[in-house]
Amino acid sequence: MIMKPLSDKAFAGPRAIALAAMAAWLLGACASPQHKAPVEDRGVRPATAMAAAQAPGSDAPKVLPGAESAGKPGYYSIRPGDTLMRVGLETGQNWRDIARWNNIDNPNQLEVGQVLRVVAPGTDTSATTARAVPPAKVEARPLDGSASAAAAASSPGAAPAAAPGAATAASSAAAVPRDEDVAWAWPTAVNITTPFDEARSKGLVFAGKAGDPVLAAGDGRVIYVGSGVRGYGNLVIVKHNNTYLTAYAHNQTLLVKEDQVVRRGQKIAEMGSSDAERVQLHFEIRKLGKPVDPARLLPPR
Residues 6 or more apart from 75 whose CB is under 8 A from it? Predict the structure, then answer.
């Protein structure tokens, strides 16, 4: 019997299977941990990496508005929990003025680290003179015999220094009361229950009944009415001049509006318990934004 050699077609099937098995084995060996190529050698090309670093949304530090003025007098850096209303309370300014000076359209969009101007543009931050808000009318009232002396001095032909004590009267008339002086009055008739503590209460606490009158402690202008300062409830802030402002917190009823001029002793709110555990008035006097002990400024009872 003559044996014919097998053709290549006869081995086509088994050869293909063997080659496929060998290829799979080789690929598996190359993919094993012992032969894994280092990732760092096949990273992004330098040009691509530079473009990614400069692209929006990268990890590059964000420059916040006003950052170049951080720490300078007349500027305030936003801290966690700050609102524009609280910034106004801390700096003794109207929050609307601060928004205008910093071109802020939405007062609720503040970022931690953002720096705000808290003095009017062009203001000399080193100046210490305060201007009254609103300007108070000074009424001159003669004391004792000064009325007759003033009348004699104003009569035709009178000698400049004819009346006794005229020099003293003239010097008193020439003296202008300092704007930072405020004629203070107590904001309520009820007794103090919690004294001033700068670290805790920052003011005086009076415990009364719901609806008890809350009075303006001095002449001034209302710069805030609302409940946007956390921890103060329904709040009224009165600015007396560029040095002093007063805050009246936890009211149940607010009887004034922003930019309204009020007078000492005027009823501006009714005592309540908003954002508080009991009915009370929390009263603060702030000097250049810093809380001071009201008991040291209020008149003796």
Answer: 66, 69, 115, 116, 117, 118
